[in-house]
Amino acid sequence: MPLTTPRLLGPWRRRFQWTTVLTLLSVPFVRVDGRGLLRLDLPTRTLEAGGRIFRIEELYLLLLFSLALVLFFLLTTLVLGRVWCGWACPQTTLSDVAEWWGRRLGLQVVAGEVRGIAVRKALLHAGYVFLALLAGANLVWYFVSPYDFFPRLASGSLGAAPLACWGVLTGAVYLDLALLRRLLCRDFCPYGRFQSALVDAGTLSLRFHPDEAARCTRCGACVRACPVRIDIRKGYQAACINCGRCLDACRLAMVRRNEPGIIRYTFGLEGKGARALLNARTLLVASLFAAVSALTVAAVAFSPTASLKLRRSATVRTLPDGQLATFFTAYVGNRSAGEDKFTLSARSDKATLDLRGPVRKITLVSGERRRLDFAVVSPMPPADRMVPIDFVVTDSHGRIVAHSRAVLYAPKEKPHE
């Protein structure tokens, strides 16, 4: 009888996978102050994030977030290798669920291949279709809110573009589950090829320790457990997804002999432990990730609650009192979580300005953007000088929430009377 029960990674991996899946499924349903936690609305060209709305001109925040995400993946890969592939990748999770469903149907699943009678295989493919429909819809929900998706789907008014995207995604996921699964991880995944170039002395890897090879019983449990059909006893291989199944299989096999497993996770292949992470490449990527993340958080936290975009018209007029009227078009948007009243005004150290048009106490609901056509009345600028002016938007509490700059200048030709 074994003296101890081995500690297995499988239950922890499954908990992590389910947590990741439930998070991805639930995020589109979460609302903050009536807005989506994370959703990109293509028709209005806005991004809803954390209950706030960002328009296309402010999608530099999305670029910052994307850069931070890329750096995070680089850092994760440098430190943890392909643990992402074995523990968090949706491809691995979908393959695990598909193979679990096959076993529940009484089919044989050996190294990713499914064998059994046709009727049960038909039920297996029905499960593939369900998973594909769910995965495809989940991706669409990040663009079309599920609170709109289901009513519009039921009424037949979802629209051609969302339906087409859902159909293409569903088809792609189904073909992946039916034909590829682990083959994609082993032979086609670009991340796996990219990761191989990032492995260094400190990267976490699954390792069959050659110094303990004499204890190996050649039972082959590690090979049978591997979802991508590699033999870890042959050393490091790029196809390994660091899932830890071979580690669990080895521990279960060796515990019968009251011995620890031979396969284990190690930082690097030289036995330096976590100290191997203190190398120039890892520290550089970690520093860049911290800096970009801090910049992204600061940009979101201190972004204004309103937006202002200006466009000056070519039309100018001379008023009866000799002043110049310059026409502008402004687009004012409310990015706050609630309704507010906004006022547009103009300031200049060089001239007294008067705005004529619907620019005061403009009521905008959250996310609304309105066009304002107005004129700036000012003394006639000197022919050889430009007068800089600052446009500001204030909220109902008198706080400046957006600003922009323009210039006034005397027209080259005689203005329209």
What does this molecule look like?
The protein has helices spanning about 10-25, 60-80, 85-90, 90-105, 120-140, 145-155, 160-180, 180-190, 190-195, 220-225, 245-255, 280-300, and strands at about 30, 35, 40, 45-50, 50-55, 110, 115, 205-210, 265, 305-320, 325-335, 340-345, 355, 360-365, 370-380, 385-395, 400-410. With about 425 residues, the chain is an alpha+beta fold. It folds into 3 domains: about 10-60 and about 80-195, no CATH class; about 205-265, no CATH class; about 305-410, Immunoglobulin-like. The strands form 6 sheets. The chain has a 4-stranded antiparallel sheet with strand order 10-11-15-13, with no helix packed on it. The longest helix has 24 residues, at about 120-140.
Summarize the structure.
The chain has helices spanning 10-26, 60-80, 83-88, 90-104, 118-141, 146-155, 160-180, 182-188, 190-196, 221-225, 245-255, 280-301; strands at residues 31-32, 35-36, 38-41, 46-49, 52-55, 108-110, 113-115, 204-208, 263-267, 306-318, 324-334, 340-347, 354-356, 362-364, 369-378, 386-394, 400-409. With 417 residues, the chain is an alpha+beta fold.
